Amino acid sequence: MDSHHQISQEITASSDPFPWVFTGKLTGFPRVASSDLEVHFGREVDKLRTYSSITNFSSLSLFPLRRQRVIPLMALKSLLKTVFFLFLVLFFGTSAGLKEREGCYIEAIYSFGDSIADTGNLIREGVDGAFAPIAHLPYGETTFKRPTGRCSNGLLMIDYLALSLKLPFVNPYLDKDANFNHGVNFAVAGGTALDVSFFKERGIMMPYTNSSLNVQLEWFKSHLDSICSSQTDCAEKLKHALFLVGEIGGNDYNYAFFGGKSITEVMNYVPHVVTSIINAAKEVINMGAIQLVIPGNFPIGCLPSYLTALNSSDPDAYDNRLCLKGPNTFAMLHNLKLQEAIQELRESYPHVVIMYADYYNAFMTLLDNALDLGFDKNSLMKACCGGGGEHNFDATKMCGSPGASTCDNPAQHISWDGIHLTQEAYMIMARQLISGGFVYPSYGVQEKWKCWYRIGESLS
């Protein structure tokens, strides 16, 4: 039995179906309200709304946050179980009565990014420091029962995307014994959008990996050289492939902040980061890609790592969700500039489907509906695995390190280790991105990606 089928069965049988590294004190963010950043961001919001009116986006939902209608708890649980069963039947295809991949348009996934998507590249490069524990339990404990190099207790969003497209899990490029018939994962935990030279010139330390986005692109080119006989052959092979260009860029900012750079200086990095992401998208398009997803950044001010590092006695530093305003506003600025650049990219390549994945608002919607989704109300801002404290995050006792402990109920936590999410949270995020309107423009895309199956007379 292959791992894809085995994991699908384990998920089906489950009773409950449903990047960064902090190495020291953040000195870059001001503890007072980041009014300068908010003013700067406010001047830019109207530009994004203008793009919304001319590009037929289903929703940009960046500002203000879209609210979801809340269903009563018992009704929601019943509905979720029904929906989840149908989701398994339609997408996972675990029963013998389902025909494999009938009518599926996407035949491969190629992924570039960081720890949000890495399925095992960093641990094959060699990992030490704060990332060292990902090579050991409790990482991977929930689903795989062993560490795989994923920065979570189980599956990531890319895994759920593969399952939804009835594809095998996307193997890491550095696993030279892996099967790459249905795509390759080039993402590396700790990876950056910008090259090492950018950080060295500014005195910023790169502690975990040199596998930047450009390095990952070189890996991709080497892979194509090994499977393509010509440029035309490559274009044909990539015609039915989905490219995930990110999420990446979060570590570029984190390394700068952790290195003591001011928020004013790091704001100047945003155009460089966005340009690197867009240039990577152009490269894969020029090599034959015609289906791209480019994700934005998470609301980093809601993560236990940032909440711990920037703990403030000033109530104005927090929003009504108890997330930090300053880091979240910075993340929104990055996302705004990225979406502007994506719109220009669409205009340059009208024959290519280029989608923006709204990780920011998908996460916020999860947070707003967390209680009805089964998360523990007292653990929304706490890591499941960590070294203690108000948010169960301690940079000197990271998850998996001596002195850290793991919660008994990861499925009731949003945060796994203070930096990354739990399998449960990633599953809900993936569902929202696949079918919840947080990837746009989405008109016609879901039908194109959909897989159809023949359902037998019985499911067993």
Automatic annotation (TrEMBL):
InterPro entries documented for this protein? GDSL, SGNH_hydro_sf, SGNH_plant_lipase-like
User: What GO molecular functions are on record for this protein?
Assistant: hydrolase activity, acting on ester bonds
Question: Does the record's keyword annotation contain Transcription?
Answer: no
**CDD domains associated with the record:** SGNH_plant_lipase_like (cd01837)
Gene3D superfamilies attached here? SGNH hydrolase (3.40.50.1110)
Q: Is the keyword Membrane in the record?
A: yes
Q: Which UniProt keywords apply?
A: Glycoprotein, Hydrolase, Membrane, Signal, Transmembrane, Transmembrane helix
Q: Which parts pass through the membrane?
A: 70-92
The record's family statement is: Belongs to the 'GDSL' lipolytic enzyme family.
Q: What is this protein called?
A: GDSL esterase/lipase At5g03980 isoform X1
Which species is listed as the source? Elaeis guineensis var. tenera
